[in-house]
Amino acid sequence: MNEYDSERILYYLKEKGYKTVLSPEESNIIIINTCAVREKANNRLFGHLGKLKNLKESRNDLIICVGGCTAQSMGEEIQKRCPFVDIVFGTHNISELPSLIDQKLASKGSICSIKNDGFDYELDKANRVNKYSALVPIIIGCNNFCSYCIVPYVRGREKSLAPDPIIENIEKLVSDGILEVTLLGQNVNSYGKDLCTGVDFPKLLEKISDIKGLERIRFMTSHPKDYSKRLIQVIKDRDNIVNHIHLPLQSGSNRVLKLMNRKYSREDYMDIVENVKSSIKDYSITTDIIVGFPGEEKKDFDDTMDIIKRVRCDRAFTFIYSPREGTSAAGMADPVPLKKKKEWFNELLKVQNNISFEKNKEHLGKVVKVLVEGFSPKDDSMLEGRMENNIIVNFKGKKGSIGRIVSIKIEKAMSFYLSGKIIN
Ligand code: SAH
Ligand code: SF4
User: Fold this and answer.
1) What pTM did the predictor assign?
2) Looking at domain 367-423, which of 2.40.50.140, 3.40.50.10490, 2.70.98.60, 1.10.3720.10 is its CATH number?
3) If you average pLDDT over every residue of the chain, what do you get?
């Protein structure tokens, strides 16, 4: 969602006549779009600002802005800590940025503009960075209040975008050459509940899937509590909806899941996985796990390890719990030392990396479809693209393959990517 917001920021600045440059030294405006989901992301903001302080002192005309979730939650506090920040803006008023810049240019004083609610999403107002794959938000905000999570506080309540503008936007993107869309929402399964259009998430997927020329539809995130068999049926029926679901587990312990306010049990999660695996061949599941939630004990962690070994997700995004001020978990007793949490985390990582490697090896010798995105950033003699399940594949090929879906025979598997040779 932050990446998409950055594309919106870029759009509004380009409208104003600005262009992107390659270094802070060359720029008139620097905008930091922040994430607040874990403390580390917050700390990074102040690290970046610290580096910009000298530049600002030497260049009085430079405008420094901070937007996004940390800006939304900290507001003026950012300018108290870093008085050289010119503009702070929140998650609900990105479209105001051009006028905030005008105000700054006219007045010279610092500005903090945060709205507690609002909806300023216009889908055509985003400057697409990737020419073949586009992010498309379908529902903003979150109503779930998982006890560890800051998102509902910084993104507000759920608001779905109306189906017609979504369809029109994707049609336009496809006519501009986009082959793949990723539909975004904190819980895409809640889509449409706040509208009276009769279009829920599976129906929206069907409508999007009907768009001619759209090769791949991805979506994230799907909350396990709202999983539906209809959703799986739609995925099964439609060739251009990818056989991949990101289904965050967070914990394998029923006691911890309850404390997290996730509203499903480990048994529910296992049932979904069984259902998915028995309904669709070659289905790929990825997940998110938090280690060291307040009060998590060794036996809870063992439950997580147990489910990880049973489900065998293609990939897991793993995080050590980070207390977020204002969330209910931040007030819970948290006796386990960080050192122990890190040990558990490393244990989990080791097991999951091995599972990812084993899962990747299952592709050896197979021919897979890869959407070619460009040259590999690590090796510019190789092209890079993604399989349906989002796994990166590297291969030798010609520039002309960029922006096409090609068939690749997989020859080598690593934990996080695959490589092979082009066969068409
Ligand atoms: N809406 C998505 C999650 C968005 S946040 C969902 O419900 O699945 C992305 C991930 O960050 C979460 O799945 C969770 O694993 C992690 N996360 C969120 N808050 C966190 C915290 N306080 N500490 C550590 N990880 C956290
Ligand atoms: Fe956060 Fe839970 Fe909402 Fe996801 S569903 S954004 S984890 S509160």
Assistant:
1) 0.95
2) 2.40.50.140
3) 95
